[in-house]
Amino acid sequence: MMSPYKTHTWLPLAVAALLLILGPQSSLAEEPIYRLCVPEIYLAECQQLLADPSEAGIRMECVAGRDRVDCLELIEQRKADVLATEPEDMYIAYHRKNEDYRVISEIRTQQDKD
């Protein structure tokens, strides 16, 4: 289970990382909608966060998974595109027979110092 600190910071950081990586786009109508998978307990917060359109022109929607491992399965099934994970989730993804997983960004906080 995530600490309260991580609960409030991982979702905005994941979205910010995705926005930085994908960069600005010229037309909303031509761009895909990226599906951000979050554990179902965070669905309302995700929807609230994505209620305002992205300044970068990236369209996103929230998809609820039972938990982070379920979100990995939703990516395998092509029902979600991106999620924020913890290192243990990436370990699980590494040992699954699937090549769909790509680490697009690593976010460290003051609490995550080496």
From TrEMBL:
- Signal sequence bounds: 1-29
Query: By its UniProt entry, which SUPFAM superfamilies does this protein fall under?
Result: Periplasmic binding protein-like II
Cite the Transferrin-like domain residue spans from the record.
Answer: 34-114
Q: Does the keyword Secreted apply?
A: no
Keyword Signal in annotation: yes
- Identify the keywords attached in UniProt to this record, alphabetized: Signal
Bilayer-spanning residue ranges: none
Question: What InterPro entries would the database entry show?
Answer: Transferrin-like_dom (IPR001156)
Question: What is the superkingdom listed in this entry's lineage?
Answer: Eukaryota
Protein name in UniProt: CG6186
